# Entry
Amino acid sequence: MSQAELSYELLPENYQDYDMSFKLIVIGDCGVGKSCLTAKATKNYFEDNYKSTVGFEFCTFNIKINDKTIKMQIWDTCGQEAYKSLISSFYRNSSLAILVYSIDNYESFENIKLWLNEVKTQSNPDIKIFLIGNKIDLEEKRVITKEMAEEFKNNNKINYFLETSAKTGFNAKNVFIEAAKQLYQEQNNYKERAQKIGNSDDIMFTNPTDNLKINDEELNYRKKKGCC
# Structure
């Protein structure tokens, strides 16, 4: 089934029951609007004088795709150099990384190269990567064109590119809806491949790049089998 055919329903942030859970990290320079973007998408909240994140913040984005409820654990990281060593620990076991720059800040776009390199060296090789150009409400101050970002995406084999505005909410939710669709589809594709080989449970739970958490019952099953 293609992603275009997937149906979805957004669920409250405090929704408890889920079938799948994925870890996402949001990274980029300080001041590009990472926290504002996640707050707008998850809480429909925006604050002009948002203070810079210290360390990290955590929120969830819950969505039902077809018949599966997905909880996305979003780790919003700070962009300060002093916290780089702390941030690197959050790359591990992440299913998707969201790289954010501001369209009015050339340096933040140039530094995406550094953030991308960190993702590729610190996380698992199968991690999905999104490129997000934020603050399109500042169109009159734009210095990074969509063409520049699209070229960077294609040259670096990034999975998805989108421009957003945390202030107006434009495309804020769509970042995480698209993330859920791609992760859902990837997991289904993996299951299908595993089933063709046979003994799909063993393959699924011992795959070192598998970042899916199904539910508590199956997590206990993984522990009983002695898998990592």
